[in-house]
Structures are given as C-alpha cells and as structure tokens.
Amino acid sequence: MRLIKYIFSSLFLVVAATSCSKDFTSVTPTNYISADSAITSVMNVRAAVNGLYAGMTSSDYYGRTAVLIPDLTADNIYRSTQTGARFTNWANQAVTSSDSYALGMWNRLYSIIINANTIINKAPALTPTGTDSIELKQLIGETYAVRALAYFDLVRFFAYSYTKITDSTKWGVPIVLNSFASDTANLIKAQARTTTLQTYAQVVSDINASFNYLSTSGNVMSSGIIDPTLFKIRLNYYSVCALAARVYLYQKAYDSAAKYASIVINSGKYTLLPAATMVTDFHTQSNNESIFEVANNSFNNQGNNSIAYIFNQNGYGEMLAPDDMAKIYDNQDVRKGFITLGNRNAFGGETNTYIINKYNNITNFQENIKVFRLAEMYLIRSEALANIAQSGNAGMSDLLTVSNARNEITPTQDGTLSTFVPLILLENRKEFAFEGHRIFDVTRITNPDNTTDDTETYPYYHYKFQKLTAGQKARSGKMNSTLKKYAIMPIPYTEIKNNPALVGFQNLGY
Q1: Nearest CA-CA partner of 172 in 144, 146, 191, 145
Q2: CA neighbor of 33 nearest in space, from 56, 8, 52, 51
Q3: What's residue 1's pLDDT?
Q4: Which residues pair with residue 7 across a beta bridge?
Q5: 3-state class of 343 per DSSP?
Q6: Are 68 and 310 in contact (CB under 8 A)?
Q7: I need a labelling partner for 125 at 20 to 30 A (CA). Which of 29, 337, 488, 491 fits?
Q8: 185-243, pLDDT tens digit by residue?
Q9: C-beta of residue 172 within 8 angstroms of C-beta of residue 197
C-alpha cells in the first residue's frame, strides 16, 4: 500500500496516516510544526486545502476502500476464488478489531479532519485584501465541507445507523475540533465516542458553516482567478447542497433532504447522462452529471491500489458481480453495461461470470471517483417526497426521471408507501451499483424481502439476501444461503489500546 503524504506546502509537514500509522491521538511532536507558523498566507491555505483533496484519493478512502466495502458487504459484489490477500476478512465475514482496512480508513479520515482543523482554526486570523480575501473565504468554506464529509463517512462506516440508536448510546465517533497542541503534555487526549446523534449534529454544523463562506454562484477560485475546471473536483455551494441532501436523507429529515436536492436539480448546472452514451460518459472526468468527483491525475492516483485495478481483469480483477445482478436490470437498461459476462483472467478463475467495469482505467489511472451525481439528487427527492406525503405517488415523478433516462421499463406501484419503498431501494441499487452506496441504503431503508434486522443489538446486520446457487457459493466462498454481513467497521484495536476513553466502547460483535 503506497504511503500518501499530505504536502500542504514546503513549510507545512502534516500527519501521513496509512494503515500502519499511529492512532490519531498519539502523534509525536516530530510529525508537525506549529500551526501558527504553517498558516501564514492565502498561498499556505490554498496548498493546505489541496492537500485535503489529495487525501481523499487514498486507497484507504475514496481511492478504493470507501467504494468497495459497502458493496462487498452487501449483495452487489463477491470476491473471486482466485485472489490475493486483499479484503479476505470482509469477503469471508471474519472481520476483527485488528482489520487493516478499518485502521487505514480511520487514520486517513482523522488525518484529514485534523489537517482541516488547522485551517479552520488558523485561516480566519489572516487579513488579506482584494481577490485574496475572496479566495480565503472560499477556502475556509471548502475546509468546513471537507470536514463535514469526513465526519459523515466516519459515522457511516464506524457507527450505528442514525435511526437505530438513542441519544444515550455512545455509538458515534470521537469528535476532534482542534489541531494538536504544541506542548507534549497535551499531545495525547482522551477522546471519547460521542453519540451518533451528536456526530450528525457536527456534520450539519460544518455544512452550515460551509454555506456561510461559499458563494452561491458555485464558482471556485484559485490564485485569484475563477477556474471552471475545478467546479466538479472541489466542494462548492452546489456540491455541499448535495452532501446536505444525503445527510438529511440518512437522518430521515425529509423536508430538508428534498430542499437541498431541489437546489441542485433546479440549478441547471447538471444534466443526466444520455442513455446512448451513459456507460462511456460515466468514465469521463467531470461529465455533465457529476456534482463532485475525487480527482485522480498523473501526480496523484492509486495505481495498482485503485478501485479500477481491483475490478479490471487486466489488473487484480478479484471483485466480481453475482449472477443475480444481471437479473435486476431490464435487457435494454443501459446500466446493465457496467457488468459484462466474461471469464476471470486468472488460472482456475470463474468462467461466464460478470465482470465489473464501472471503474476500469488502469492505463494512466486518471479516472475520477464519483461521490455525488445528479441521479442521486432525483432519487433522494423521490424518497423524501414519498415519505413526506406517505404516498408512493408523490415520489414517482423523480424516480421515473432517472428510470426513463436509463431506458428502463417503466416501474409501477400501487401508490402506497409500502410498495414504493422496495421500488426506490431497487432503483438505488441499479443506479449506484459498485459506487459504494448499497449497504447504507439497505440498512437505512425499511428492510425488504422479509430480512431480519439485529441493529438494536449488533453493529452488523443479518440479511437474508437472495439464495445463492451452488455455483455462486463456490465462487464467493459462502457456505450458507443466509449471509452475515458486516455493515460497520470495528473501532481499530490500536486506537482503543492507546485511548482509555474508548475502552469498553468497541462496536459489539468485535
């Protein structure tokens, strides 16, 4: 696994968190210099914010883990029988508190948060003039947005679903809002787990703070000049609205979810990809439908640790789609083009299996990771409006907007919310397969197909997905038709070992 360092500027050495890094509460003085001397100009802040986005490309975050695990732990992906040691425990439902992927994501996210804290705490003290003052305001707004996204991802991956807990249960994540103090005595702090509700409150607070700084034009400035090429790879007013829509949906705050989804839809800045070219257009950087992408370029990409390399049969090619994925699409549904019937490119590998090609660039690895797309805004508003009205009819227009754009046979329902719920869940599965949404949709939406839900007791969920055929059992290594799927990660063992406040607050079952 490559070591990705956040190089904010030639003067600012920041935490380099990888799966083998120290826990975020035990950084030593040699890992940084005083924040007072690091953030001294708009140029420093600009470089620091660029470093935050560079951190998102890590294989521990959107570069691979955050995209793969939500589908692997649900029913969209299984691991080939011909594979290396990657994601073995997740594929076999044998995850422990020493899991390297959980540790890598935890460290990566807190490293981004701590670096964002430095900017948030120090940048407002600067007093630039002219366009520098405008850009500084924007950069601070972006930083709040990055921190909001990081905390949202932490609570999604490491904590209970928002609707499955109470405020008295400490199953959120530690909230750290300050950079590390410069004196050794304060380097190690006892950061306890907050509640999930408190963590979400922090996410919303950061989103609102971001809105206070970002221009409603959505323009992104760099070096004093508006740069249109940054519109979809930097968090601006509209991509933060997209984040707000998703956060509020997860909270079942349906009025707010619909409000922010509508802002994005009505902006006119994005259009759904045409059916005829959707599969190819999806791979285009900053395509018309993308709202926010994590940018990979020639200087900053994950190479053979990328999500594309683990899908592509000319790379590792270890992650495959189960047979039933093909059955969820109508034959003319263009999204079926993201899976291709073929053979595993490995000796003894599967034949006539479904190859995933949603991310596939292993030539130069310059393929951006889609975090927010316009289709999601339509489906968020669809789900929100149906729940507000307690009627499936209220959500159908937006659902059909996406469905029709993909050449899907028109879905039908009887107008009740109970029939609409599995419909919206299925449409989300079709639209966002292999993009890192599935386990979160399954766990937050009313459980379909008579599944059992142990969320009141356990941090993982026992779902009775469609029974596997004998061939699928052999392919995926699953021994039973009822699969125990881990929906959230363990708090890393090293973190609990080094933080007394976390002792006794491990996610149950680990």
Answers
A1: 191
A2: 8
A3: 24
A4: 13
A5: coil
A6: yes
A7: 29
A8: 443 456 899 999 999 999 999 999 999 999 999 999 999 999 999 999 999 999 999 99
A9: yes
Kindly report, residue by residue over 130-140, the tens digit of the pLDDT.
999 999 999 99
Write phi, then psi, for 319 (nearest 5 degrees): -100, 125
Q: Which two tokens stand for residue 193?
A: 């787990």
CA distance 381 to 370: 19
Inter-residue contact 237 to 216 (CB < 8 Å)? yes
DSSP annotation of 178 reads S
CB 208 within 8 A of CB 237: no
Nearest Cα neighbor of 250 from 156, 166, 371 is 156
Give 185's contacts (C-beta < 8 A, 6+ positions apart). none
Number of Cβ within 10 Å of residue 170's Cβ equals 18
Q: What angle do CA 441, 442, 445 make, to 5 degrees?
A: 75
Residue with tokens 């489906």: 379
Helix, coil or strand: residue 309: helix
pLDDT of 120 strictly over 90: yes
DSSP label of 356 = E
The distance from CA 220 to its chain's CA centroid, rounded to whole angstroms, is 22
Parse the chain into domains and list their residue ranges. 7-26+34-301+372-502
CATH number of this structure's domain 7-26+34-301+372-502: 1.25.40.390
CA distance 44 to 11: 8
Q: What's this model's pTM, rounded to 2 decimal places?
A: 0.89
